[in-house]
Design goal:
By secondary structure, the chain is of the alpha+beta class. It has one domain (10-152): Alpha-D-Glucose-1,6-Bisphosphate, Chain A, domain 4 (2-Layer Sandwich), CATH 3.30.530. 26% of the residues lie in helices and 37% in strands.
């Protein structure tokens, strides 16, 4: 069992991105299900999640208690290695490709589990990019810690 804590997410103001790499003591297949299937997303991300299909072009909504409904769409899908989502703003049911961010989960099997990396980019076109990166940096730190805890609890 790995007792080292995962490092927090970091933001890069030069690339307008937020990233985090963590180790999860779960198989790649379990982690994949947790980051792609709405019933799992809802449990660790504390949101309601819906997707019409799990493939490129699939779309849906994530509903966050503090932010409202956020439209989401799958831009790349390579099971069980990576998935890229674009999410919009709670102020619009449609995703504006210019004023939205993209995040990719990349999964890699490693000794004792799975290495998960998330990279979110596109903040340069948003209002107050620095504040949005900081908010999402905190969100990815909290959220991926919740994912680790969810999977450690035996979620399948």
């Amino acid at each position: 069992m790995n007792t080292d804590p995962n490092p927090p997410a970091t933001s890069d103001p030069e690339t307008y991105s937020v990233s985090r790499t963590i180790h999860i003591e779960a198989t790649q297949e379990r982690v994949w299900a947790a980051v792609t299937e709405p019933e799992h997303l809802a449990k660790w991300a504390r949101s309601k999640a819906s997707m019409d299909r799990l493939e490129v072009g699939g779309s849906g909504m994530w509903t966050f208690e503090r932010y409202g409904e956020v439209p989401i769409e799958i831009e790349a899908y390579d099971p069980p290695n990576s998935v890229t989502y674009r999410w919009g703003s709670p102020s619009s049911p449609l995703i504006d490709p210019v004023v939205s961010t993209v995040f990719t989960f990349t999964l890699e099997p490693v000794d004792g589990g799975t290495q998960l990396t998330v990279v979110e980019s596109g903040f340069q076109n948003l209002d107050d990019p620095a504040a949005r990166m900081e908010a999402n940096r905190g969100g990815w730190t909290w959220g991926l810690d919740a994912l680790v805890a969810y999977l450690a609890g035996g979620a399948s």
